[in-house]
Amino acid sequence: TLEMDNHSDDGVSANCKITILQSLLLKKGKLKTADTITVLNDAGDAIGYYSRASYVVGNLQRKIKSRTDERYFFPVGQEGRTSYFPASVDVFSMEGTKFITAAFRPLERYIQSHLNTRDSEMNYDYIAPEGMWTISPDREPAGGWFDLRLWISGMSGLQDNLFAILKRPAGAAPREWTASFGEMSPFGGEGRELADGYALKKYCTSFSEYAIGGTGRGIPIELLNFNATLGNGVVSLQWSTASETNNAFFTVEKSNGADFMEVAKISGSGNSSVEKNYTAVDDKPYTGISYYRLKQTDFDGNSKYSEVISVNNISAKTQMAFFPNPSEGVFKLKFFSPVPKVDLVIYSQQGTASFSKSFSSTAEVILSLKKELLPGIYYMQVSTGSEDFTIQKIVIE
Prior knowledge:
Blueprint: E1 2-5, E2 12-14, E3 18-20, E4 24-28, E5 31-39, E6 47-48, E7 56-63, E8 69-74, E9 87-95, E10 99-105, E11 117-118, E12 123-124, E13 126-127, E14 132-137, E15 143-151, E16 163-168, E17 198-204, E18 208-214, E19 221-231, E20 234-255, E21 260-272, E22 276-282, E23 288-298, E24 303-305, E25 309-313, E26 320-323, E27 330-347, E28 353-368, E29 376-383, E30 388-396
Parallel strand pairs: 1-4, 2-5, 3-5, 4-6, 5-7
Antiparallel strand pairs: 7-10, 8-9, 9-15, 10-14, 11-12, 13-18, 14-18, 15-17, 16-18, 19-20, 20-21, 20-22, 20-23, 23-24, 23-25, 26-27, 27-28, 27-29, 29-30
């Protein structure tokens, strides 16, 4: 066991490889390495006492357990008072990987104008400049997956729901940053707001370099408000601007936590220095939570996004619970009032229908998929005849 308890400003520097059989206890001070610190104890709690005042500067390697579920925390950062940016990897039955190495370093080979990557939600146009993570395995996993958390406290320019983890191959060009991997929580969910302290990508299957990308860093209008109100089954959206510059039009977009779709397009006022008021209506909100955002487009075609707002459209007639999720293949659908009919379709990640079944006159459905579907991630559509519910994701372990 190695215990770090050093109260000097410089901490401790090691110019050699350090191998720890049992535990690394980071009680006080930075432990800086020019090589690698390796912890051979594969228990999730083999590293303890870490904090903003005590972490590893350099490569931190941990041995992990295969074919099990475990969280591994990497208390890493750079030198400096506000340079603690740890990461954690939640391992789910990964095969073939025995060691994971993590480090946090200055952002390299990055030119802001080169960044233009998007996922199903939005376009990311900048990277938080504080640095990036390199997380690499001794061998890429042959099976299973992992959830990745990257701590963002102290990073500049980020807004709630408008940031995400980006990745690229080690040492690749700036244009190769991508957001199209793993899954994020729905808006307002875990890892989507600054108050969480971290960004989250779930169901990842390969390691790489990582950074935090953002969007919506100022739009060429002064937006006073953006509100959504539910009434009589429709959502009324209102927003106001104090000033506008080169503003061609607004697009109101909505999402149920996955892709965004257009609700309405409203012409802008071009250039204005007085208050302008706008309205739009969504006459088909989702059952449950609908998320809305404004996309503002200039006359030259450039677009920026507002923050995301939401409306909870819970039906008084029918409410539904779905659990447990994930499971090994047995799920329960429970309706809080009886429904005359239930039509259920499960889709693969590629969008093909993998399973369908109908039930009549029920308040509860036991769904056994052990023999029907292989372990993996699926999407489920439920219709009760009068209402549609979309379960964003189900996981069969």
